[in-house]
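This part of the workshop introduces the protein records we will be handling. The question running through the whole workshop is how a given chain folds. To make this concrete, we reproduce a full record directly below:
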Amino acid sequence: MHLVEKHIILRSDPRYATLDAACFASKNLYNTALYEIRQTFIFEGKYLNYHEMDRRMQSQEAYKALPAKVAQQVLLLLERNWKSFFEALDAYKRDPSPFRRRPQFPTYKHKTTGRNVLIYTMQAVSRSKRTLARHLIQPSGLGIQMKTQQDPKAITQVRVVPKHGFVVVEIVYEQEPSSSAVDPALIAGIDPGLDNLIALTSNKPGFVPVVVNGRGLKSTNQFYNKRRAELQHALGRPGNTRRMERLTLWRNRRMERSMICTPSRVV
């Protein structure tokens, strides 16, 4: 199975500017290729697949701004978006009732504020004795490093995901699932909720039922919604501020950590 190790790079981190510039370059290639596909589809009724777009884009500055392996991943992502569009369009033609409107073409990312994901396969990550052998991830062309706790042999790719006010670097690695003996006569029951996040019991002899307290998560979310509404009202228009971005980051990280570390009580 595939798991992810996340590294959050804030604006204050010296590596942020480099990663943000790379995400901006990814956006440029995405939009350039999207324009070519849309124009051909609209005026010629023909779809340009990944192989054709890779051939056409190689001479473009937007393509050359990224390592070739990374640029190819941007084009593959765009092709997946087009395939999703075609699948949705086919479903709409068969039965339009579940849709609010006819599926639309993949859209452009904003010219100045838009950013796009970067995917570095292991062919685009330094594998020298000075980097990966020391558990240091160094994506091609970026000149930055980050420490990983994973076995270098298990890492399959590195993703750079732009967010509002920060960047998330995801190190994807493989881990063999551990198997255990299963008794089909044993049953576990899980009841999710709000005040009690999870109630868990089982018919296994000696099993002690547990209840995971969800009030902390509920309180965090209520505070976030209230504070976010106050900041939005003070702004006076739709949009985000850095304070909102910091608040959202704080809430998301707290929720993720609480889901892992929330203490339980025995009933």
